[in-house]
Specification:
By secondary structure, the protein is of the alpha/beta class. The protein has 2 domains: 3-151 and 353-366, 3-Layer(aba) Sandwich (Rossmann fold); 155-339, Rossmann fold, CATH 3.40.50.2000. It contains 16 helices and 12 strands. Strands 2-1-3-4-5-6 form a 6-stranded parallel sheet, sandwiched between helices. β4 (97-100), α6 (107-110) and β5 form a beta-alpha-beta unit. α4 (59-66) crosses α5 (82-93), α8 (153-168) packs antiparallel against α16 and α10 (220-235) packs across α15 (328-339). The two termini are 17 Å apart.
């Protein structure tokens, strides 16, 4: 009988870790069962076959029902996530486990749960998208051989999407998505995030912020969006018009952004975010993974962060692909370059084949079942 991998995902970022994984495991003689709940389920709809969790079913019961040879969990911002309970239960049952980490930030919060120990619920191996993330876990005390760089399966999906979008062309997609954009306008899409996370305080105004918005809001996203709106108004005063698109994060609500929604030309929610950034002249935001994906689509990107230290959070900034600004003057310069037509397409970033590398790691793990 073929080895069986049980995957559990709760957050949309982690859900991207199972993209393409079923086919890769099948090619290696293994089977995949995905259990997705909450926003992960919505994110995977029409992309991956999955089942929901049975109401009231705990970690022990879920493992007993599926009897996997290995467990894969995605990390979640929920410290009480079933994923961490599954890791603990798998260890007790002798089932090897892996955790997929979708991005560099907040390594110390991924597996701590409600404890102060960053590795309290750490699986047997941690599968990470890049060397920077691996090094962050090693710095926390994880043995180097337990942190495996696989890349990100979402990158594979985006690279495949690029070929399909290139066949249609930017003009065709832009006309469909942004029919009201003036002729000759530069389309700027702001990729929003929520103003909270593993360490909620770092997503709120502090003395370390070098961007301050208009002074009436404390959320990171709202402050940066206010800075962009004001900078855009100044940048287009003497040049090409800007058409501002606000791309909502799956966790955003219209209420949290409030009246700022009235200051953009278009609010984009639902549908395909890759089409939105592909049809833009510039994708900007803070440190969302959508900026990395926009780079993979060949689009110019710009990270706007309220603290310079946040430049460490995005791999394309580290790789020199995405410019990063943390002051008003620097933001004004970058938007002026866009208006002047001086912003270049993104340089190549990331090697394809991540789903296959994840599958290799998981198949190896199934052979370690105790």
């Amino acid at each position: 009988m073929s080895a069986k991998v049980l995957a559990f995902v709760e957050d949309p970022g982690a859900a991207n870790g199972v993209l393409g994984l079923d086919a890769e495991l099948t090619a290696r003689g293994a089977r995949l069962v995905v259990v997705a709940i909450d926003r992960a389920a919505a994110s995977l709809a029409d992309r991956v076959t999955f089942e929901g969790a049975t109401p009231g079913e705990g970690a022990e019961a879920l493992l007993a029902r599926h009897a996997p040879d290995a467990l894969l969990v995605g990390t979640s911002e929920n410290p009480e996530t079933l994923g961490l309970a599954l890791v603990d239960a798998a260890r007790a049952r002798g089932v090897p486990s892996a955790g997929f980490v979708d991005a560099f930030p907040n390594a110390a919060y991924r597996f701590r749960g409600a404890t102060d120990d960053p590795l309290a619920h750490c699986p047997d191996v941690v599968l990470v998208p890049d060397a920077w993330t691996r090094d962050a876990f090693v710095a926390l005390g994880l043995a180097a051989e337990r942190a495996i760089v696989t890349g990100h399966p979402m990158y594979d999906a985006v690279l495949a999407k690029k070929a399909a979008l290139d066949a249609l062309g930017v003009t065709c997609i832009r006309t469909r998505l942004f029919p009201d954009a003036p002729p000759g306008a530069r389309v700027v899409t702001f990729c929003a995030e929520i103003s909270t996370g593993f360490d909620a305080a770092q997503f709120r105004r502090s003395d370390a912020y070098t961007l301050h918005g208009r002074g009436g809001r404390d959320g990171r996203t709202e402050i940066v969006l206010e800075e962009l709106l004001d900078a855009a108004a100044a940048a287009q005063a003497g040049g090409a018009p800007l058409y501002l698109v606000l791309r909502m994060h799956p966790k955003n609500t219209r209420e949290e952004l409030g009246a700022l929604l009235d200051e953009v030309d278009l609010v984009s929610a639902g549908g395909d975010p890759h089409e939105v950034v592909y049809a833009s002249d510039l994708a900007c935001g803070m440190t969302t993974t959508l900026l990395v994906e926009a780079s993979l689509l060949g689009k110019p990107t710009l990270a706007i962060v309220p603290r310079a230290l946040e430049a460490e959070w995005l791999p394309t900034i580290r790789a020199g692909v995405t410019p990063c600004v943390s002051t008003r003057d620097a933001l004004a310069r970058e938007l002026s370059r866009l208006v002047a037509g001086e912003v270049a397409a993104a340089a190549p970033f990331a090697e394809p084949g991540a789903a296959g590398r994840l599958a290799d790691a998981l198949v190896s793990l199934t052979r370690r079942k105790r």
